[in-house]
Amino acid sequence: MHTTRPKLMFLLPGLLVLIAIIIFPLLFTLRVSFSSWDVIAPGLDWLGIKNYLRVFADTRFWESMGRLCFIAAVTVFTEYVLGFALALLVWKDVQYKKFFRILFLVPMMTTPVIMSVIWRTMFHESLGPLNNLLGVIGIDPVPWLSTAKMSMLSVMIVEIWQWTPFMFLLLLAGLLSLPREPFQAAKVDGAGPLRTFFLVTFPLMAPITIAAIIIRLIEASKIMETVYVLTSGGPGTATETGSYYIYIRGLRDFQIGYAASMSVVYLVMMIIALTIIAKVLVKLMIVKEGK
Amino acid sequence: MLTFYRFLKYGAIICWSAFVVSPFLWALTTSFKTTEGVVSGAKYIPWFQYKPSLEGWRNLFDRTGKGIDIVTPYLSSLTVTISASFISLILGTLAAYGLSRYSYKAGPIKNADITFFFISQRIMPPIVLAIPFFLMLQALGLLDTMLGLIIVYIALLMPIAVWVMVDFFGKIPVELDETAMLDGCNPIESFLRVILPNCKPGLVVGGLFCMIFGWNDFFFAFILTFTNTQLLPVAVVALNSSVSPWWTLSASALISVGPLVVLAFVVEKYLSSGNLSGAIK
Asked: Which domains does chain A have, with CATH numbers?
């Protein structure tokens, strides 16, 4: 196992392909972000940090980033609570366990944009089933996609529908791999279901909890497809997320240079935020374990 | 008390199940509607509330322009997803095996850093890469081609393959490699003949996740193709913005998400047998 040739043969193909397809374009984005490349004058001139100054003064950008953080935080937290609850529900003896496990996994297998298309017909104010069913129990039609607050809620409902299964999958896989001994010990000590959960299950699940939340936050930080299909960022800019605003500036208005600097700011902020969140979560969970 | 607890438990399960299936049921019933079933408000039960028709489903195979032709995007999606997943899985598995068996060092960079580099690529928001990908494929003449999309998807899917496989190889004892080498295999032979057959569950899980994320991607297919190549999600979303009727939309949505729903059965099988817990920790 000491020859270098097979050693490099294993690692290098993948590594080089990844560097060529991701790192090289990323460096290109960085360079473009210092240029005034747009639809009138495409090309790599040198603009210095002007684009970045514009980003910092662009309230629409910061509002869309704030909205993204809000949506990501609320949906990931809800997905975690629901996913954990569902995993606990079908963890042990439940009738038709296999059937419900499969059913709960289904939404994450489906294409988000395509399901958003279906959700859009469901949210339709006069022809959709949601308002129709609410009408049956005597509730006035809800403006699902036409007011700022409700369209945010609609986007979040679709996200939660789509991605709770992923949380469920990770947490159930974690539950199924837990050792039996601590549970037997808790039973011997006469601990009830609630005590067992808080003193045994939850602490044992800490590592997988951290992993699951981080993975989902990473994916949630990219949200734009649901928004694109459901609301196109509207009404006005009420549901515009960071990615979606950059998309509009870059690939609709073709302000390529400016969009590139926004994406650099976006990426840097995401990396910093996710690192901090990961550190905080690890700290919080380990304190809990030590109790 | 116990019955009350059971009542709550099954109540919760049934509520969530209803939420999960509602869009599918709605799409299914809508796909058999015609104008009268849609424009007069929400209807649910065929024959009782509206007269069912197969028009929505027939429109999917319509080449005259009245409906859409779903077959071509379907085949394109299959080609792109399967090729990209296959290549990512090969490259990812090789890299993961290398990382789990050898120690690499380049200055301060060690194995853990390289693994992190692979996996951390998932953090990259697609929009950050959109512009360079567009220009790069344009320069290579690969814009609007399947090959261009396959190249892009390899980069998106490889981190997933590496993530699943690194942990999987970690669980396979090194003694297995050593025994193979004592029997006279060189490292590559021992990998192919001894290790690979032993990590079938890992390969299946890794491949599945690649397929799911590849098949379901919309963004890159949307910005990197126009008319020659069209993948399924793009074709369906195009219906959404055009004036096409809800029944065609619903039928095309159902036929697009159908094949992957079947994968839920496979994932559940690996989940319940405990093979997933190691793979995704």
From this structure: 17-290 (1.10.3720.10)
